[in-house]
Amino acid sequence: MKIKAAVLEKMGAATPYEKSKPLAVQAVELxxxxxxxxxVKVAAAGLCHSDLSVIDGNRPxxxxxxxxxxxxxxxxxxxxxxxxxxxxxxxxxxxxxxxGHCLPCSEGRPALCEPGAVANGAGTLLSGARRLHRNGGDxxxxxxxxxxxxxxxxxxxxxVKIDRELPxxxxxxxxxxxxxxxxxxxxxxxxxxGSSVAVLGLGGVGLSSLLGAVAVGAxxxxxxxxxxxxxxxxxQLGATDTFNAGGANAVEEIRAATxxxxxxxxxxxxxxxxxxxxxxxxRRGGTTVTAGLPPPTHTFALPQVNLVAxxxxxKGSYIGTCVPNRDLPRYIELYRRGKLPVDRLMSxxxxxxxxxxxxxxxxxxxxxxxxxxx
Length: 374
Prior knowledge:
Oligomer: single chain
Order of helices and strands: EHEEHEEEHHEEEEHEHEHEHEHEHEHEHE
Number of strands: 18
Low-confidence stretches: none
CATH topology of the largest domain: Quinone Oxidoreductase, Chain A, domain 1
């Protein structure tokens, strides 16, 4: 079938994207679902820094590629072997398909699925197939989803069925921002009630972490960012303290305000500078978690003696160490009960034709979560 999709022709376009137009909205061919695959009509797709990092070349991927990995939609057609979904079901897409058989999957860690990682790096679905084509050639999939399009053919292993009552534009945010941010707090760090927490980088993922910290009962929630507007929003969402990371004495001020540092610091900005700040404001015996994705060549140095003598922990978190089929419904239920006001993260709704403008806003730090609605 012919669909309209936003295709990235090559990485590294100059900003502003409104002028350079790295994403070209054009017609492509989409195959029907193969074995174990599902055709989904995309209802909404969020703009995330993981998409932006492909556009600017910081996370190299094969091109041409249809971007978009945080999305929700409605099942249209089932491929052979898919028996646990029905046409009309509402689903959230997850950006790492889990095979269910590799060692990480067998250990209950589907976010680290090895075949899923290989497929994502190659720009294919979990099966190794490419279902997108143009002018006789293949177009690559982004993280097994490619949701900046009217329809998507994806692996059944990339989908979580949800209740039809949840608006699909809100549901889209759960596929990346919420799973990653809330999961980092609940699953990766296992933050206990009464703890002190800092979140550095207040995009969709960072603010989701902040919501997660509030939900688990952290007594102190420190928000750190370069944007005073985002710090104001963090206050509204439950932050007890806010600090601008651009201040010359930010580390000293945060450590003084928290009595020597926080027990848990979450770096969500995707920069070594933010990671360094996060580590420095973590107290003795504390844990520093990062879910940010800086360019692969960037490295983080730390004093090893400090790591040992202070019994410090540094952890990575991918998709919030989540088991999507378990965690996504739980987070949706918390949202319904008013414990995770995820809808407050939505900056604006866009048309697909406005997508380059949307990425300009994201690049400039002027938006938390923008959603393309179809």
